[in-house]
Design goal:
Length: 263
């Protein structure tokens, strides 16, 4: 077999291992998935009428606010799910299984690739579940074309890949699983201070830059425009640029930490 075939085989083995762990121990994924689900239900059914009236400046319309917040909730779902990747990597590093892998004749990058691909697949499945709930309570995307739906799906996968590489780096940099979970908490908190729930321009002047100059806001605005069939302006390029920058940073950070540990 060629070197590429061997690397693909080893990465596939590590992927199946991580998916098997996720299936056997689903509590971490379910706990992380609970936060966006609860926020979706809370903001729609408790605050929906008030928030829609405040944003639109007109009458209360819970369905309009549901359409507004779903893109942010979907990206928040990704941010929460990839925290599990940080915890999983830290657990592998501290429990000795990685040291065992290093004694075997396997591709050195297959361990990280297995974690990344597995986390992205879990993120996609989590997004599908949350999106299904959103549709069940009334969300509709009738104005989006098939091309916009495809672009939205691509953005979600790209965003999940970028955040997963960052989460893997956090897991490698942490001394234990608890520290990894704490280090990855910004991936859950950043959407709360973005344009997920209210437009950034309505925020106080001192707070508005925090919401604008971070990866979640342009990604949310791009996804919102794609799903609702409205314009995205420069947010599309900003979102893709953030994703590529985070993916490259996370990749080199993770591989540097992993190779250092090998020494």
């Amino acid at each position: 077999m060629s070197a590429l075939s061997l690397a693909a085989r080893d990465a596939n083995t590590m992927l199946r291992r991580n998916l098997l762990h996720a299936r056997r121990y689903p509590s971490l994924t379910l706990n992380l998935l609970l936060t966006p689900i609860m926020l979706l239900l809370l903001f729609v059914y408790v605050f929906g009428d008030v928030m829609s009236a405040g944003i639109g400046g007109g009458g209360a319309d819970r369905s309009a606010y549901l359409a507004y917040i779903v893109p942010g909730i979907l990206l928040m779902t990704i941010g929460g799910t990839v925290v599990g990747a940080a915890v999983s990597v830290a657990t592998d590093m501290t429990e000795g299984i990685v040291a065992r892998f290093r004694t075997l004749a396997i591709h050195r990058g297959s361990v990280l690739i297995g974690h990344v691909v597995g986390s992205v697949l879990q993120s996609v499945m989590s997004v599908v579940l949350v999106a299904a709930l959103a549709v069940a309570i009334g969300f509709r995307s009738t104005d989006a074309s098939a091309l916009e739906w495809l672009a939205a799906a691509g953005l979600l996968v790209l965003f999940a890949t970028a955040l997963t590489w960052i989460a893997v780096g956090m897991g490698l940099a942490s001394p234990n699983a608890e520290a990894a979970g704490n280090m990855a908490m910004p991936l859950i908190l950043l959407p709360l201070i973005s344009s997920a729930f209210i437009p950034a321009e309505t925020m106080p002047g001192w707070f508005r830059p925090i919401a604008e100059y971070q990866p979640f806001t342009p990604a949310i605005e791009t996804l919102r425009g794609l799903l609702l069939g409205t314009g995205i302006g420069n947010d599309g390029w900003l979102a893709v640029s953030w994703c590529l920058a985070l993916a490259v940073l996370g990749y080199f950070w993770s591989t540097a930490l992993f190779n250092r540990e090998r020494g």
